[in-house]
Amino acid sequence: MDITTKTEVSGTELAAVLGVTGRRIQQLAQDGIIESDKGKYLLTDAVQKYIEYRMKEKALSAAEKEKLDADVSIKKAKAIVSVLEAKELQGKMHRSEDVAAMTEDLIYTIRGMLMALPGRLAVDVAAISSPAEAAEFIRKEIHKVMGELSHYQYDAKKYNERVRERRSWDTGNKSDTDDD
Length: 180
Fold this sequence. Notes:
This protein is mainly alpha-helical. It has two domains: 8-84; 94-173, no CATH class. The protein contains six helices and two strands, in the order E-H-H-E-H-H-H-H. Strands 1-2 form a two-stranded antiparallel ribbon. Helix 1 packs across helix 2 and helix 4 (96-127) packs antiparallel against helix 5.
């Protein structure tokens, strides 16, 4: 049998050629994708239309997949941001600008303590008669300052206040333990 543009086949034969079920052929005909004339199909026309349909379906699937991938990517990014914000609010993570600001505060505290030493020590050192005693007295005072600084500890409340200030949140919401 020679196949021409006028070769007609049954739904079962077309299904065998296209590698689908007979029911699928009926659905394609009902959806207007391929044309049927009393259960007979023009073989070349049906195959070409089926190929066009599958090409469009794949193109649409690729576009849909790309859109879904983009949506998933956006959702993952939002989830990561939410987790990081939650950690920040819980005090488990700090932004570099907050750490820098708190470190700057510590440096100013150290600076203030060191700048206060000459005024605190001037009268006492002037009363000391030997340079060795004066040096020892100054050394002890410096050790006192260093001892005070060694007790410096991380203050979660201060970091929390900085986070809320940066985010322009209301810092007036105090917990029940802060009542006067």
